[in-house]
Amino acid sequence: MSALTRTDFNFKGQKSVYHGKVRDVYNINDELLVMVATDRISAFDVILPKGIPFKGQVLNQIAASFLDATSDIVPNWKLATPDPMVTVGLKCEGFRVEMIIRGYLTGSAWRDYKAGCREICGVKLPEGMRENEKFPTPIITPTTKAEEGHDLNISKEEIIAQGYVSKEDYEQMEKYTYALFQRGTEIAASKGLILVDTKYEFGKKDGKVYLIDEIHTPDSSRYFYAEGYEEKFAKGEPQKQLSKEFVRQWLIEHNFMNEPGQVMPEITDEYAESVSERYIELYEHIVGEKFVKAEDTDLADRIEKNVSDYLANL
Description:
- Helix content is 32%, strand content 27%.
- It has eight helices and 17 strands.
- It has helices spanning 55-69, 107-114, 156-161, 167-190, 229-235, 245-253, 269-287, 299-312; strands at 14-19, 23-28, 32-37, 42-43, 46-47, 78-83, 86-90, 93-94, 97-105, 119-120, 123-124, 133-140, 143-144, 193-205, 208-212, 221-225, 241-243.
């Protein structure tokens, strides 16, 4: 199986390109963005050395599905998906914060809590919580959006005081975040899943706040299976989950958290294919339909043709 780990297109009207950890974003005339979801995978702020077949298609199609399913809540940037791995949308001025919302105490929040932390991003946490326990109400724990390296936790008050986002815009983003998480939670529940936590990114265009980037994908979200959650929680057992956390756990087991002196373990073809299967499994659960693998030979040629045809017909 082939995987697309790098793109180098030159579309009509292209002004620049940004290569992110997973997505390559092409600026078309400062009006549109062509966002290519590659098959790269990152964890602990580092890109793993091997791509995951069909991961880009999975991410792009889940995000497109949820952007459509939440467009009544908040305007979003998406205009079209001319290729299974590509979304084209409006170019917005992105805010320099990510809105992370958590319904359960897990992942990095649990690691901090276990170490004695009782406040995250200005949000006080109750005593006596256990791993994977549901919060009384979801909490928002924003981070700064770093150009390089780690995103940093920050409180609402600091975001406003330091001028990252105006008070008015932040409160609009906060309102949208709660509403999007509620919708995502309802959709997940209808598929036998629990939306545990996720992140949203917002931008502004013509004075209006838009939802941008991906939404409710396994790269930006964590899902548990609803069946068995209570029993596993009562016994203190790990939850069965559909998210990228299983990749992080695999790296941890192989003594890698991107800390000084640590060496990235070998990513075999077999392991890459097993990760691919997990991503497809998530797609089928959360979207509720069979995943149809797109033609995976000459991925770059296919994308270039589909996007060029779309732009030519605007």
